[in-house]
Structures are given as C-alpha cells and as structure tokens.
C-alpha cells in the first residue's frame, strides 16, 4: 500500500511525466505517445482473423442484448396530498475502463466493461491497458476496443493508470467511475482513490466452486476446476461432492489434463495452494458450505440444478447443468463476467449498467402536502435542535 500511495502521489503531482517514467520502470517501455490513435484500433480489427472476428461479434451482440434489459426505469409517484416524488437515472459523463495485461490478453474484459457503459449512455469512455514488450497492448484487445466503440485507449497500466484516471493528467482525462479488474497494485490503487471517483469493486483472484453429484463426469469437473486454476497462482478451485467415486477420481483426472498444459506451472501452484475436494453427506450441506464461501463462480453439476440453486443465497454467478461450463459466462453468455470475489458475493453483485449511472431524487410538494406534514417536520427538526430547519417550514405555513 505504501508503494501504491507513492505512485499515486507522483502521478497527481507530475502527471504525464510520472506515467512515462513509471511505465518505463515497470513495463520496460516508454509509452510516448500515451494515446493509441483510433486508426490503430481500426487496423487491429481489420487484421483480426475472420473466425476470431465472428466470435467477438457474437460475444458483443449477446452481452449488448442482455445489458440492454438492465437499463433502470425512472420512478414517479404521487403522494397522498398530490405531492410528486420520484427518482431519475442519468449516466456519468466519463468512465475509465481498466483492462489488464500481464499473463494473458483479455478482449473479453474490454467488452464486459465497455458494453454496459455504452448502454448506460456514458459520453466518454477512457480505456487504459498496460503496453506489451513491443510497446503496445495485445492486438485483440485493441480490436475489441474498436468493436465496442472505444476510441480513447492509453498504453499505461498498474497503479499509475488508476491514478491518471482518478486525478487526470494533461493527456488522460479525470473520470467519474473506474471499472475493470487488475493485479494487487491496481486493486489497492482503486481502493485508495475511492471517494474521489466511484469504483466497480475490489477484485481479488478468480475462484470457482463446483457442487457435483453422481451424475457429473470426472473429466468435465476437472476441466472446469483447471479453467479457474490456470488464471492465476492465487486462483481457488473447489469441489464439493456427494459422490465418493467422483472425489476419488479427481486427482487422476486433474493430472491427466495437466500433462502438456501450456500454463501448467501456474495451474499446479493454484491447485496445490488453493485447491480443495470436500466429500459432503448431502447436497443441502454442500449448499450451506458454498454459502459460507460465497463464491465468485458457482457450478451446479447435479441432476436438478434449478432446485439446488434455490437453496443458494451467496454467489456471484450460478452456472446450472452439464452444458453450462463457467467459460460460457466468461466470454459470451450475456451476463457480466466481472463478479464479486473473496466472499463479497454476500453483499455485492456483478458489474452492470447501473455501475455507470447515478440516480437523483425528485421531490415537489404543493401547499396541501406541506400543510398536512409540516407540523411533523417542525417537531422532528426541533427534536434535533435544528432551529432553521423548523423555521423554513413555519415561514411557508404562516
């Protein structure tokens, strides 16, 4: 945290110069200029293989369609004395989208952040993402930005990028809300600037919890556990099962799929440190244990997943049945893949259109309403010792 605060202080004081120096120190390249031209994004899209273009278009269309249903409606209520009461939703003006780099490229993160912001009606989207060894982010990340209609992309990542979005520099505008996952430095930087700007969440390492009964296939369960473990050495992969046979089969099934795995070292570390197999005496007990963990991703590989889902109170997303691997949610099912981690599903939910909006209360009393309620307002104000609060009502009633 001390290092993050030092980085943020430098960005606030030195602006673009700090971004240049810090990016050169941490990423090995000097991002000059900081902004990637819009034409470069269009070129990346044109250079994308046709099959990948089709996959990105499908993901974009499904994510867009689902999030369009999330737009909140304004509220207008007439009170008992003719007074008007309401709530009005409006988008923030500027949103900062953080897209991580590092171990992998994440065009899916571009879509999952840009689409709800666009649906919300945000006027200006500002994307930051770390430069790769060649000085630019991954081509597919740039292509996804073009597809999602993001025109402002800056080659800067880490805590310094969060500082730029929160404070503003000569090149990068200050935003109203920052969304998108990142490493520990990014997460701590988002925590530090919260209050100056809004943030979506404090994202920790990814996690999956699978509840499986005798109907689940060992190879499919193993693949789903590995799909989380390959994200990060800190990723958690947990199996709760009522089947002794499935529990016994898992070590061999995992080992078989780890042979020649391109991310074997990361995956093995995650499984060794954060992997768990628990044999439960009932699915009800498994549901109770799952709620204690409040997983980011919960898979129900059981005969009646809908019935079991009704018993679950705390989960970021629930994937039901053998044909719904968590991977479909990561890429194109429709609901957002930015989900609460580290047990925060007890009180938080997925990134949504509302993340990029704020609501304003609307109140209009007429004389009848004030006469009917004014004495109560005066009594309450006087009970709190707030003389002018009471006086503001008395002068209208007199």
TrEMBL record:
Binding-site residues, NAD(+): 98, 160, 183
Top-rank taxon: Bacteria
The record's free-text note on cofactor binding: Binds 1 zinc ion per subunit.
Entry's Gene Ontology cellular component terms: cytosol
Matching InterPro entries: Ald_DH/histidinol_DH, Histidinol_DH_CS, Histidinol_DH_monofunct, Hstdl_DH
Keyword field contains Metal-binding: yes
Record: residues binding substrate: 206, 228, 231, 297, 330, 384, 389
Positions bound to Zn(2+): 228, 231, 330, 389
Signal peptide: none
Keyword Calcium: no
Catalytic activity, EC: 1.1.1.23
Keywords: Amino-acid biosynthesis, Histidine biosynthesis, Metal-binding, NAD, Oxidoreductase, Zinc
Coiled coil (residue ranges): none
GO biological process, one term: L-histidine biosynthetic process
Pathway stated in the Swiss-Prot or TrEMBL entry: Amino-acid biosynthesis; L-histidine biosynthesis; L-histidine from 5-phospho-alpha-D-ribose 1-diphosphate: step 9/9
Catalytic residue list: 296 (proton acceptor), 297 (proton acceptor)
Top-tier EC class: oxidoreductase
GO MF entries: histidinol dehydrogenase activity; NAD binding; zinc ion binding
Transmembrane domains' residue ranges: none
Purpose: Catalyzes the sequential NAD-dependent oxidations of L-histidinol to L-histidinaldehyde and then to L-histidine.
Family: Belongs to the histidinol dehydrogenase family.
Protein name: Histidinol dehydrogenase
Protein encoded by which gene: hisD
């Amino acid at each position: 945290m001390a290092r993050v605060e030092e980085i943020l202080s430098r960005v606030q004081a030195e602006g673009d110069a700090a971004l240049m120096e810090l990016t050169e120190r941490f990423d090995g390249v000097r991002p000059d200029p900081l902004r990637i031209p819009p034409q470069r994004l269009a070129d990346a899209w044109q250079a994308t293989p046709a099959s990948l273009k089709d996959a990105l278009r499908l993901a974009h269309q499904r994510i867009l369609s689902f999030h369009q249903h999330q737009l909140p409606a304004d509220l207008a209520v007439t009170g008992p004395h003719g007074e008007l009461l309401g709530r009005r939703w409006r988008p923030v003006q500027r949103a900062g989208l953080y897209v991580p780099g590092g171990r992998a490229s994440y065009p899916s993160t571009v879509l999952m952040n840009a689409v709800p912001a666009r649906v919300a009606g945000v006027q200006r989207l500002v994307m930051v993402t770390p430069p790769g060894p060649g000085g630019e982010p991954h081509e597919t990340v740039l292509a996804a930005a073009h597809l999602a209609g993001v025109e402002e992309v800056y080659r800067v990542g880490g805590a310094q990028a969060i500082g730029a979005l929160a404070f503003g520099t000569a090149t990068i505008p200050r935003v109203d809300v920052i969304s998108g996952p990142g490493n520990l430095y990014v997460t701590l930087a988002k925590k530090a600037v919260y209050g100056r700007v809004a943030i979506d969440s404090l994202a920790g390492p990814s996690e999956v919890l699978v509840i499986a009964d005798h109907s689940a296939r060992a190879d499919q369960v193993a693949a789903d556990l590995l799909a989380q473990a390959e994200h990060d050495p800190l990723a958690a992969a947990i199996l709760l099962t009522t089947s002794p046979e499935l529990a016994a089969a898992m070590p061999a099934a995992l080992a078989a799929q780890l042979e020649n795995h391109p991310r074997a070292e990361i995956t093995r570390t995650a499984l060794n440190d954060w992997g768990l197999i628990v044999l439960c005496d009932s699915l009800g007990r498994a549901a109770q244990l799952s709620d204690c963990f409040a997983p980011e991703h919960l898979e129900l590989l059981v005969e009646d997943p809908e019935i079991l889902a009704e018993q679950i109170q705390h989960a970021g997303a629930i994937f039901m049945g053998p044909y719904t691997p968590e991977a479909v949610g990561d890429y194109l099912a429709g609901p957002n893949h930015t989900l609460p981690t580290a047990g925060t599903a007890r009180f938080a939910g997925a990134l949504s259109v509302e993340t990029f909006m704020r609501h304003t209360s609307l109140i209009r009393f007429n004389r009848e309403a004030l006469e009917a309620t004014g004495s109560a307002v005066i009594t309450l104000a006087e009970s709190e010792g707030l003389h002018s609060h009471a006086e503001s009502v008395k002068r209208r009633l007199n």
